[in-house]
Amino acid sequence: MEKVRQWSWVLGIIGMLALLFFLSDDGNLATVSVRRALRSATGSDTWYNNMLTKTNNLVVLNNGIVRLTFSHPGGDVIGIQYKGIDNLLEIKNHENNRGYWDVVWNNRETEGVDKLQGTRFKVITARADQIEISFIQTYDVSLGNATLSMNVDKRYIMQRGRAGFYAYSIFERPEGWPEVDIDQIRIVYKLQPDKFQFMVVSDDRQRIMPTAEDRENGIKLAYPEAVLLTNPSNPDLRGEVDDKYQYSTENKDNKVHGWICTNPVVGFWIIIPSDEFRTAGPFKHDLTSHVGPTALSAGKEVGMRFVEGEAWKKVFGPVFVYLNSVPTLNETILWENANEQVQ
Ligand SMILES: *[C@@H]1O[C@H](CO)[C@@H](O)[C@H](O)[C@H]1NC(C)=O
Ligand SMILES: *[C@@H]1O[C@H](CO)[C@@H](O)[C@H](O)[C@H]1NC(C)=O
């Protein structure tokens, strides 16, 4: 009798939640949920994932450790909340200029930088321990050569119990679309400059960095990226030259890099488990982190050229954004802990 009552209670809840998802505006979500609900009734899975909430303008993933806020349906990362810091990203920047993808492309008629704005949102998987979401930008054939002739599916994965998230994108073009050259594909995170001042790109390249303002106040040298710091906010840096190419790394060594905030002590790391997706090869030098504070995962000079009609599909990533924290400042501990995440 007790058992029967428990079961009817469980089925009642499942029914209610399934109904809720049916009423939501996302057909895909509904089918996933029902499948999960059926499996959970057999005891082999629990489908209910309470990491996701969604409104008209926002999608939020929260595993109790990290809270990620995305624009909807664009799919930019506009907020990363961690260890009492409401947003690790630069809140002064517009929402599409904090955590985003961009693609530099051209064809013989047009060129552009496409910041991959999704028009459709989908839940790919929603298990109790993991959720994967998708924001899709679709090419409109009627626009011909005027835009990037590629469909892009931006994916984000959050796992329960992990301080971070995965990001990757699926680029795809079927046969018959206009020609395009892709010069660069990047994932960019712009952090709060008041908080993140210490940068680590390798065991022997880690330091307190100048600010973007320090660069503006300095003197441009032989090329615009190299700036002599004449009046930096941190007087210790006066007379130094800042140049982001000082911090580039060969792809094969570019596995972990990032920034540290001293109060509270928080590390923000870009972890690249495999560099296979970087088409330029293992010895290609590429940018890592630099003044901003900016953390990048770049595929510069990816050199992909598609003739008219050529079909293609590629996954760019995954990149793991990892966050860590210790009670008292020790950059080495955070850096070593971030490196331990690379398996
Ligand atoms: C795109 O540009 C190329 C080169 O100018 C041209 O041959 C092609 O017809 C154009 N395609 C479309 C769909 O406009
Ligand atoms: C920071 O941690 C490292 C590694 O555990 C240790 O060797 C070092 O002494 C620590 N530094 C400080 C200032 O406590």
TrEMBL record:
It comes from the Eukaryota. Coiled coil: none annotated. The keyword Membrane applies. The chain crosses the membrane at residues 7-24. SUPFAM superfamilies: Galactose mutarotase-like. The keyword Mitochondrion does not apply. InterPro entries: Gal_mutarotase_sf_dom (IPR011013), GH-type_carb-bd (IPR014718), Polysacch_Lyase_4 (IPR051850), Rhamnogal_lyase (IPR010325). This is Rhamnogalacturonan lyase domain-containing protein.
